[in-house]
Design a protein that fits this description.
binds 2,6-diamino-8-propylsulfanylmethyl-3H-quinazoline-4-one, single chain, 42% helix, 373 residues, globular, alpha/beta
Length: 373
């Protein structure tokens, strides 16, 4: 444990990096995958189970928690860590992205965004200053700048204007965050798929100075090939000695490709959301447990996996409880998926430290079937 926030880069292999982010609430081994706990819960998981999968940090959402139960109520109850019984680090997103993707009747101005709650239609206003206040009330260990993320495809003018607005909001976020020892503020690079715009964004963020830097504006419909093209240059535009966080990514092969290109942290709802819809990610590919072929299969999802689902239950059982819409279905498949995602991260950390990332990556891709297995 440490009273301050710092990043210790331990080893590199090509562009891939492994290290440790030190925070007062614990260390985060990188590359790190961060489960998403949107409304103060990683859906279908107890916090102890999330920790058992190997997660060092999870995510919360300013947008959802400001609407329900409100940041002020969570603050009165001791903050988000106590509220949700998670004593390790928490990163919170700043809310702007979720406003644009979830709320109704939004109005975007220089000041911020005004919107109607998707829950009860009540009107709300988010600015960089209010987002910093909410994330402070939540007790977030890693705070994200308030930004605007344009949906792709978008024309270059829209992307440039949006990026420039986000950089002005980044300065306001920095000014409002103040000096909070042991807490970190991350800037978010924008600029769509444009290398020059992303370069300008990175320069603006460097000038403001942050504890970490996110690659934003991706995983918004561009596809893996376009995302990797951006990741071939964007991480290198960011400071080498600070954590690099790719927001909203992704499938296992997205994650491996991002780490290969210099990303240290990622988050995605995929493993938990897919767990609830019957999709299990394994080292040989995806298992859609609702498929009738699993109805009599006594084998585990993945014979090499040590998670509770693979250690104690057959595909036949998992098929049955999914079809029967039993709660244990989402619990077991979510646990399996988060466990598998953490195994991928642990494997990459070890491989990078040993200078063997290329061999690990080749083994990761070998034998992965396309489609359902
Ligand atoms: C809890 C969810 C965190 S990631 C959400 C997210 C996802 C993606 N894909 C992009 C962005 C972005 O550009 N900015 C912000 N603030 N958030 C983004």
């Amino acid at each position: 444990m440490t009273a301050t926030f710092s990043f210790d880069l331990k080893a590199t292999d090509g562009k891939a990096r492994t290290g440790v982010i030190n925070t007062p609430r614990g260390d985060i081994r990188t590359p790190a995958f961060m489960p998403v706990g949107t409304a103060a819960t990683v859906k279908a998981m107890m916090p102890e189970s999330v920790a058992a999968t190997g997660a060092d940090i999870l995510l919360g959402n300013t947008y959802h928690l400001m609407l329900r139960p409100t940041a002020e109520r969570i603050d009165r109850l001791g903050g988000l860590h106590q509220f949700m019984n998670w004593d390790k680090p928490i990163l919170t997103d700043s809310g702007g992205f979720q406003v644009m993707s979830l709320s109704d009747l939004r109005k975007l101005t220089e000041e911020g965004v005004t919107f109607k709650s998707h829950i009860d239609g009540s009107r709300h206003h988010l600015t960089p200053e209010r987002s910093m206040e909410i994330q402070k009330l939540l007790g977030s260990d890693i705070v994200m700048c308030f930004d605007e993320c344009p949906a792709l495809p978008a024309d270059r003018k829209r992307i440039q204007e949006s990026m420039e607005l986000s950089m002005r909001w980044a300065q306001r976020s920095r000014d409002a965050f103040g000096d909070r020892p042991g807490h970190a503020l991350f800037g978010i690079q924008q600029g769509g798929l444009e290398e020059d715009l992303r370069g300008r964004s990175a320069e603006a963020l460097r000038a403001i100075e942050f504890d970490g830097y996110a690659v934003g504006g991706l995983a918004v419909g561009e596809g893996q090939e376009a995302m990797f093209k951006v990741l071939d240059f964007a991480p290198d535009q960011l400071p080498v000695d600070k954590p690099r966080y790719l927001m909203g990514v992704g499938k296992p092969d997205d994650i491996v490709g991002a780490v290969k290109r210099g990303i240290d942290m990622m988050d995605c709802v995929l493993p938990s959301r897919s767990g609830r819809t019957g999709q299990a990610f394994t080292r040989r590919g995806v298992v859609n447990i609702k498929n009738a072929r699993h109805a009599d299969d006594p084998r585990p999802l993945d014979a090499e996996c040590t998670c509770p689902a693979c250690s104690n239950y057959s595909r036949a059982y998992l098929h049955h409880v999914f079809r029967a819409q039993e709660m244990i279905s989402g619990m077991l498949l979510t646990w399996h998926n988060l466990h598998y995602f953490q195994e991928i991260m642990a494997g990459m950390r070890t491989a990078i430290a040993a200078g063997a990332f290329a061999d690990w990556e080749a083994d990761f891709h070998a034998g992965r079937a396309k489609g359902d297995i």
